[in-house]
Structure formats: C-alpha cells, structure tokens
Amino acid sequence: MENLEMKEIEATVEGILFASGEPVSLDRICMATDLDAHTVKMVLQKLMDYYSFERRGIRLVRMEDSYQMCSAPEYADTIRKAFEIRKPAKLSQPALEVLTIIAYYQPTTRAYVDQIRGVDSSYTVGLLLDRHLIEECGRLQVPGRPHLYRTTKTFLRSFHLNSLEDLPEMPGLEADGQLRLDENGELVENVPSGE
C-alpha cells in the first residue's frame, strides 16, 4: 500500500514539473502536494535518478531550490532537427507592418495603426492577438475608450530580443517619436547629426 502511495506522489510531482515547462520551486511543490521538503526532495532525487539510469529522453535538473524537466542532452541534435523541420508560420507584410508600429509606439490603439498605415488593420490586429505577439493592455481614456495594444514576451522570444531596448533604431523616427516622410511620402532615413 505504501509503495502504491509513493508511486502516486512521484506521478503527481512529475505531472507538476511537466505541466509547468519552467523551473518550479521546492516550496511550491511542497505546498501543492501537502508534503514536507524532505519527502519532496527524496521523490525528486528518485525521479532524477530514474530518468538518468533508464536513459530516458528527458532529465530532471535542479537549479538552486527549483527543479525543471528538460530534454536529455545526448538527444540534442535529433531534437534540434525535429524543430528545424517544423517551420514557424511566416508573418505577412501587413502583419509585420502592424507589429512594427505597435512595437515602436506601444501602448497604442488600432486607430493609430490605421492612421499610419492608411488602411483598416482590424483583421491583422486580430491575427497578431491570436498568435500572442501582441496583447490588450488597457483602454485609452478618450470617448469610445479604444483598446491599447502592446507586444508580449512571445514577441520578444520570436524576434530574439531580451527587451524592447534591443529593437533597432527605426529609420525616419524623429526625436518626438514621429515618422519623417519626404515629399513623395517615402520614409526618410535618420542622418546622424554632424554629417
């Protein structure tokens, strides 16, 4: 009976770690399972040993007082190949335009995006919301109270950025944050002062 109970505890802890996808602190596991730290550490060590000894495709790694499931390093090349085959869906030119405007002018409204682009962007904003590249972040305090949009952590991850400060300087952006266009309506490149 006690052995069955231990198997259930192991399965519960395993399920928590798998579902998280991120490091989970020992305290959080203890709180969720109503178990003391010693018992949880024992279960975690048993799972770590099991995955390693059985040469499973996953490992349980410890980082200070947190634990996380990850793929086994010896299968890294094969795993990398599997994800290179699955190409991410590309964004259309309109989607990239809308995403760029929101990234540089956030938080901003769809009406402002429409004003810059000169066309209705409601479909594209919906697409970017569905892909979790942007999110609603409140409402503008004007009549009609339009939604404000900003980029998400998924946006940062997708474009390999640590923060919004890593965005390249946008060409034609004035010090006041406005785009500069020439007489033909083309974007004017920023020219460093003194040239």
Name the helix and strand elements from N-terminus to C-terminus, one letter apiece. Answer: HEHHEEHHHHEEH
Point out poorly predicted stretches: 190-195
Q: Major sheet, described briefly? A: 3 strands, antiparallel
Shape, principal axes of CA atoms: elongated
How many whole angstroms does the radius of gyration measure? 25 Å
Short synopsis of the structure:
The chain is built from eight helices and five strands, in the order H-E-H-H-E-E-H-H-H-H-E-E-H.
Can you tell me about this structure?
The protein is an alpha+beta fold and 195 residues long. The chain is built from 8 helices and 5 strands, in the order H-E-H-H-E-E-H-H-H-H-E-E-H. A 3-stranded antiparallel β-sheet has the order 1-3-2. Strands 4-5 form a two-stranded antiparallel sheet. A hairpin with a 7-residue loop joins strand 4 and strand 5. Helix 1 crosses helix 3 and helix 5 packs across helix 7. The longest helix has 19 residues. The termini are far apart.
Defining traits:
195 residues, alpha+beta, three-stranded antiparallel beta sheet, two-stranded antiparallel ribbon, 5 strands, 46% helix, disordered C terminus
SSE topology sketch:
Blueprint: H1 2-20, E1 24-25, H2 26-33, H3 37-53, E2 58-63, E3 66-71, H4 76-85, H5 93-105, H6 110-117, H7 122-130, E4 134-139, E5 147-151, H8 153-158
Antiparallel strand pairs: 1-3, 2-3, 4-5
Helix pairs in contact: 1-3, 5-7
